[in-house]
Amino acid sequence: MISQFFVMSQRGDNIVFRDYRGDVQKGSAEIFFRKVKFWKEDGQEEAPPVFNADGVNYFHVKVVGLLFVATTRVNVSPSLVLELLQRIARVIKDYLGVLNEDSLRKNFVLVYELLDEVIDFGYVQSTSTEVLKSYVFNEPIVIDAARLQPLGPASIFMQGTKRMPGTAVTKSVVANEPGGRKREEIFVDIIEKISVTFSSSGYILTSEIDGTIQMKSYLTGNPEIRIALNEDLGIGKGGRSIYDYRSSTGSGAVVLDDCNFHESVRLDSFDTDRTLSLIPPDGEFPVMNYRMTQEFKPPFRINTLIEEAGPLKAEVIIKVSAEFSSSITANTIVVEMPLPKYTTSNIIKFLFTVSNILYKIVGGSEHTLRAKLTFSQETHGNITKESGPVNMTFTIPMYNASRLQVKYLQIAKKSSTYNPYRWVRYVTQANSYVARI
């Protein structure tokens, strides 16, 4: 049971506010923002997604720089409310096309209509974009996406390639193209977040992939879709199927630990030919979520060396090797390494250009960073033990570490002339990419 829902900017501006029950004080948004901004409890730098203040439970998630918040005085499942907030953000994005502060303010009438249909007197009714289309009648005011700064995982598809148009990122599912026409197209995105920990000698200690097959459909008439995955795909221990242990034997080239599917997916032939059948609902939704801990080749190798150059000086050398095809370019790369508190100054020298090491790296290349450090004499300690680890963040379009592939995307034809656009795209991002020193 939800008492209030509101959306805030990271500056503390209240963009959307809806009070459903009137049992929480009106100043809850200001109380929430002060708590989150100045959170210092239990040694934490950031507020947890769920906390209690003066008898009010606050739940929040951050989506593309906006804070989606719900409050209640009753004891409810935190995971349920957090999932609800994510779904509300997704529904609003489906309707507006672009989810940011400007689009929310310009479409506030539509947003409030959506909120009243999603939640009634604090009780959740529906978060399905397709169901809501029968009750929501306001048209979205389209925001010009060309002048927007791209945010979120899908934004990497907007970066200038003819194979990967970014229209799915910024198009409303209810608004037509100029002239009243609707472009028939469907997008399938395989998004993987990888976590890798390297030892000081470069060996892989832990590795994991959290992936999702995301779909966004702009097809009229809801035709049936068939998605074919790797034929040698294995699921569960030993690569066998988790749905029919009798029908699958041996280990596939791609072995997932586990997976789950959207409620619209039919698995009638999944065990035999690894195809998924579904009639896609309107809006963006995850067709399949999966997890993989089988050993895989990490996209980057990180080697770090610290050399003392005297009693008060040292040099740090970080080498990053891109171990993927030269036809692929990784972007939005950041390499960070915490230094001892007694470091007084550092001079960083890149053996390649700054833009290469911080923003883009081409596959097959190797980059080295050197940093000369100076320490204060009074507090000089063990440099190696008090430095690091090295953390790396990156995004790699058209690459996936698990090797999970969409072999084909088939659409049930209405006629011989019906040929909608199909787009299958891949992206890998760093979730936790750490190299110990």
TrEMBL record:
Its main location: membrane. GO terms for cellular component: clathrin adaptor complex; endomembrane system. Pfam families: Adap_comp_sub, Clat_adaptor_s. GO terms for biological process: intracellular protein transport; vesicle-mediated transport. It is found in: Endomembrane system. Gene3D superfamilies: 3.30.450.60, Mu homology domain, subdomain B. InterPro entries: Adaptor_comp_med_subunit, AP2_Mu_C_sf, AP_mu_sigma_su, Clathrin_mu, Clathrin_mu_CS, Longin-like_dom_sf, MHD. Residues 183-436 form the MHD domain. Keywords: Membrane, Protein transport, Transport. Belongs to the adaptor complexes medium subunit family. This is MHD domain-containing protein. It comes from Acer yangbiense.
